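Here is one record:
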Amino acid sequence: MGCSRPGALAVACVTLAGVLSSLSLFLPYWSKLAVSIADTSDRLELTFGIWGSCLTAQAAATTASSSHANSSTARYSAAQDPVTNFTCASYFDTQVVGLKCTDFSGITGGDYSCKRVENDAGKSLCASATPLTLLFRDADSTDRRAKLEWLRVVKSACGGYGRASVGIACVAAALTGLTFVLLSLGITCGPIESCVAKAGSWAAVATACLQSLLALFWFLEARPAADAVFGTSYYMNAISVALFVVGFLAARSHSQLGQEAQKMLEVDFAMEIADETPQIRGGDVSKNAVGPAPTNLRVIAV
């Protein structure tokens, strides 16, 4: 086997890059948009991903009214934990997924719980004539500008940029797996100058290029939302690009170790040949030396 420190570094970088890129493709946090709710302390956030958009609504803790002071539920409602609701809808799928979590920001005993709900909306965000109704309720927000920006991003995601992003993401995901397999097998199981490892290094470069292209398409896709900022998934994608490049450089360094070892073997072999070659020193001819026949010999007749 031809494993080396640069080779181990290449495999580690590609593995971590694959995890980050997979999370960035799965999680809908490429961009986010804060939404204000009038006359409340509740928080609302819109997030966008490659495949869909999510609405996160975090309600502040509530207190009980004085008319229920003697009721058995007054003690509980007076210190009710905050509730966070997640609602996600896909650009191309009809499933709407909801997640309701109690005391999401701080776990305190048995008050923490989550409930997952799935509904078939009948239409996806791209197919629906009123996509706002899939995520928003009438009381969710009074920020009309945020809703308009959300609609612009959804329209862009359903167009050419969005479909191109989905296609690039699928190819990048497949190439990420191929890169990991090639580098793992080529470095850990093959010789130090394995062609499989070289192919894996170039696959890492191709994956980095695709991930960079995906980031560019996402920038164009989310550009209609002026108030949106890049989210966690976007930065995880950027880090994965850097790790793929480092993995490529480490894999190339691993291959160069084999070339350097081959050169050293050639030098050693040449020195051994030179040591075995007969030497002529001080006019003395060694026993094994072979030279031209002398021309000044005299023939003596007997």
Summary: The domain at 5-62+81-252 is CATH 1.20.140.150 (Butyryl-CoA Dehydrogenase, subunit A; domain 3). The chain is about 50% helix and 15% strand. The chain has a mean pLDDT of 76. The CA atoms of residues 179 and 210 lie 13 Å apart.
